[in-house]
Amino acid sequence: MSETHGRQDPDAPAGEERPLLERNHEPATTSGARYRWYLRIFHHDKADERNFDLWLIVAIIASVVVVMLDSVEFIKLRWHSQLYLAEWFFTLLFTVEYAVRLWVVKRPLRYITSFYGIIDLFAIVPTFLSLLFPASASLAVVRILRMLRIFRILKLAEYSSEAGVLVQALLRARRKILVFVATLLTITVVFGALMYVIEGPEHGYTSIPTGMYWAVVTMATVGFGDIAPGTALGRFITSVLIIIGYSIIAVPTGIYTAELARSLQPKRHSVRCSECGLIDHESDAWHCRKCGRSLPEAKE
To answer: Does residue 167 register a pLDDT over 60?
Structure first.
């Protein structure tokens, strides 16, 4: 946490753990126009600071609406030139804003690699890519993610902290989820190849990847119906795969829920009670939860 000229970063209150997706960015200087722009961009206390954020949100919404309207055929035929100019106006505006953010912080690379820094960069890249790949212009709608800043602007940082808890639980469960995904891929490959051999091209299974697509759709119990087995054995295998899908569909949910429950449990430390020998106690406990004896101080 940093403090500049008596102004404290409102997003990093003392004594609280910073949200996973937040980073504190120190100003490049503590005086002059550069510092004033730092306060205007990264703080939300004074009227001009809040007005900057609100106008930024208005620009974000307007730019996303422009991209969406340009994808509607009859609007595009009549207003494409105007919408194209508007899109470039917003892109250049966000590019200047991004450059100013890099100019006012002490460590620009830290901002570039931060969560919001990556989103800000992705907000302007699609329009420039559209010069080479015209279809990529529609990807500019990703800038709607910049609306996440509204949590900070409206002093709802605790919701951002809760989002951090969800992300941390997902990160802790990543190995178990990876094993689960690997198992699904194995089942998909085996059943896809099996249906390719049994059904063959005459029933739509023209290749093993096509069979794998059918296996994913079947195991997810979506059942688009664009590819269906035509033999009795193929239908039996389909029934087996559907049952497998129903059996394992709750596995990742259970893994994630267990990790989330661990995150919400009170923090504990291992201090052995000198009376009964119990080790597991809550981090703020002064007495043993089993016998009531005073606990020795935890070693740092």
So the answer is: yes
Separation CA 35–CA 13 (nearest Å): 21
Nearest Cα neighbor of 160 from 8, 297, 23, 299 is 23
Report field, pTM of the whole predicted structure over 0.90: no
Residue 196 one-letter amino acid: Y
**pLDDT value for 22:** 55
**Model confidence over 251-273: pLDDT tens digits?**
888 887 887 777 666 655 566 67
